[in-house]
Design brief:
By secondary structure, the chain is of the alpha/beta class. Helices cover 26% and strands 30% of the residues.
């Protein structure tokens, strides 16, 4: 039986945690975030300057989670407790 891990927040730390945990075959991962995207704040100035499109500075979390070899569930909700 797999361990279940819930990652709350799709910020930089949450995404790195999912990437790291996804390497373990005995862990089921769920990512919860109130936003459907991760905003790449470090790339914002490139967008403002016209060097990037919006899809270059925002990561769709549902698509991102679906891209892993193993299943990573994404829930678009605000964690309240």
């Amino acid at each position: 039986m797999n361990k279940k891990v819930v990652v709350i927040g799709g910020g930089y730390g949450g995404l790195r945690a999912v990437e790291y945990l996804s390497k373990s075959r005995d862990i089921d991962i769920t990512l919860i975030d109130k936003n459907p995207y991760h905003y790449l704040q470090t790339e914002a100035y490139g967008y403002i300057a016209g060097r990037f499109d919006m899809h270059d500075v925002a990561v769709d979390l549902k698509e991102w989670c679906a891209g892993f070899e193993k299943k990573v569930e994404y829930i678009n909700e605000k964690a309240t407790s």
